[in-house]
């Protein structure tokens, strides 16, 4: 890997194009390096993962709204919208499918200086590939690049400390990945990356306080914007430049300012794009920092016994967990039984309480209003707090995969004064965890989530297609779409009409 120093420059400075971060990303994206077998295997795993979470969310209101918007944009030989036949404009298909993927917060993750769900790259790249007749091998190449760009930006540039939403790394990764997939020249990719970043820098309020369905829409919009940016760049349109380093650019005014230097790693010429292997999926439908804590709660409940005897529970954890999903956030909504599902998903106090009581976690039952309103749950929930522990923060940011951790130490004080402690650094499903996910676990998760939504024969057809993705010729990627029985889709909620019909 090559590590690039990235800082703001005054307009009067001599700052040549080839030193711009967007250009370095474009050169890397245009490098025709082969995709390693393990990277290609993981790309397929994540397409399967996305399909499962899309299936289980297909009847939810935000997904239904996005799908109905997309269905208002049919085109001949277009992209596919999850669950339905027909062709639709690629950017609208990406929009609908992106919301379906993101709605339940149940797909893959990568956490470092920033955080991300790099599986959000899959819907826009698949949609463009379907509309333009791209081969399966080139789709895999594009996705390997998209994952690489987003994960490398996440390693090098923190957004959330400046209250910028993490999708500001997704727009550029989508643009770069499409550029790789379509074998575009660096000049075109450079312009697309710049446009995509410029148009996807938004505040983090979508993940703060009373969290709404926009949390699911934000990545879908970034994917849609990325597609449109590539289209304009292919037609010869330029972008703000230098977008990261300019005097009025992202670093100078939205991030750490003109005196700060970021260090962004990128593969060098001829170096394979392997960053997808650094990411990890979720076993549970909850914020990633909750994954290990759900496993820890399951392990602790037998040691605690009677949960009525719990006086307090303190979770010693990382800065990110404490301030984003813990009591360090200062969000009273994180203790509100009437809070939205999206808000409860970002309350580790609620999640730990329910996991202690139930010994498991379910994407629907664990968030149900009647579950959140149980008096014993509310009582336990309010006994839980978080504190930042510098060691957990250090491990969160560690670059050593064997040391990097997203867990916590739990200190449970009982009414008797007895203190029970236990800790877990990584989730059981993590690649280094007790039960790491591989192809059998991805297909099992897909089957569980698709059950009752997708017919068994259609499930098997999809798995057969995706497992042979590398051999699919141009024009065959429509087979990646899963068609849901119309009788199932008829159960989707009624929604008011909008502008698009």
TrEMBL record:
It holds the Pfam family MmgE_PrpD_N. Its EC number is 4.2.1.3. InterPro entries: 2-Methylcitrate_Dehydratase, MmgE/PrpD_sf, MmgE/PrpD_sf_1, MmgE/PrpD_sf_2, MmgE_PrpD, MmgE_PrpD_C, MmgE_PrpD_N. It is an enzyme of class 4 (lyase). It comes from the Bacteria. Gene3D superfamilies: 2-methylcitrate dehydratase PrpD (3.30.1330.120). Residues 19-261 form the MmgE/PrpD N-terminal domain. Keywords: Lyase. Residues 284-469 form the MmgE/PrpD C-terminal domain. The keyword Lyase applies. GO terms for molecular function: aconitate hydratase activity. Belongs to the PrpD family. This is 2-methylcitrate dehydratase PrpD.
């Amino acid at each position: 890997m090559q590590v690039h120093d990235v800082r703001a420059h005054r307009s009067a400075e001599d700052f040549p194009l080839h030193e711009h971060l967007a250009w370095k990303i474009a050169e890397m994206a245009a490098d025709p390096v082969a995709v390693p077998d393990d990277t290609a295997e993981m790309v397929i795993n994540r397409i399967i993962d996305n399909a499962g979470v899309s299936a289980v969310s297909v009847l939810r209101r935000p997904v239904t709204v996005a799908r109905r918007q997309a269905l208002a944009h049919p085109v001949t030989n277009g992209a596919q919208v999850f669950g339905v036949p027909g062709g639709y404009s690629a950017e609208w298909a990406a929009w609908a499918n992106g919301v379906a993927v993101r709605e339940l917060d149940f797909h893959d993750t990568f956490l470092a200086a920033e955080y991300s769900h790099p599986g959000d790259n899959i819907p826009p790249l698949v949609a463009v590939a379907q509309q333009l007749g791209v081969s399966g091998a080139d789709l895999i190449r594009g996705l390997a690049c998209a994952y690489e760009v987003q994960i490398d930006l996440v390693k090098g540039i923190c957004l959330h400390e400046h209250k910028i939403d993490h999708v500001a790394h997704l727009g550029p990764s989508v643009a770069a990945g499409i550029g790789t997939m379509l074998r575009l020249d660096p000049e075109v990719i450079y312009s697309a990356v710049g446009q995509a970043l410029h148009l996807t820098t938004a505040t983090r309020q979508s993940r703060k306080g009373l969290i709404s369905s926009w949390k699911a829409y934000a990545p879908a919009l970034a994917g849609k914007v990325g597609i449109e940016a590539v289209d304009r760049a292919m037609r010869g349109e330029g972008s703000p430049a230098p977008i990261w380093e300019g005097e009025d650019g992202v670093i100078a005014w939205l991030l750490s300012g003109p005196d700060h230097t970021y260090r962004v790693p990128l593969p060098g010429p001829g170096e394979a794009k392997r960053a997808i292997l650094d990411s990890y999926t979720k076993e549970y439908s909850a914020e990633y920092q909750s994954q290990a804590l759900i496993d820890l709660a399951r392990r602790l409940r037998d040691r605690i016994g009677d949960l009525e005897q719990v006086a307090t529970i303190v979770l010693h954890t990382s800065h990110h967990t404490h301030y984003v999903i813990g009591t360090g956030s200062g969000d009273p909504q994180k203790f509100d039984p009437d809070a939205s599902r999206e808000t409860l998903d970002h309350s580790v106090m609620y999640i730990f309480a329910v996991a202690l009581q139930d010994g498991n976690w379910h994407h629907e039952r664990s968030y149900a209003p009647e579950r959140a309103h149980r008096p014993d749950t509310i009582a336990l929930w309010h006994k839980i707090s978080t504190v930042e522990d510098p060691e957990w923060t250090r491990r969160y940011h560690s670059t050593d995969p064997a040391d990097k951790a997203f867990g916590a130490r739990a200190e449970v004080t009982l009414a008797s004064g007895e203190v029970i402690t236990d800790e877990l650094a990584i989730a059981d499903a993590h690649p280094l965890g007790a039960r790491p996910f591989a192809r059998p676990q991805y297909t099992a998760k897909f089957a569980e989530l698709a059950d009752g939504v997708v017919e068994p024969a259609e499930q098997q057809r999809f798995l057969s297609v995706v497992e042979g993705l590398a051999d699919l010729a141009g024009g065959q990627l429509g087979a990646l779409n899963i068609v849901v029985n119309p009788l199932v889709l008829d159960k989707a909620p009624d929604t008011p009409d909008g502008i698009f019909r």
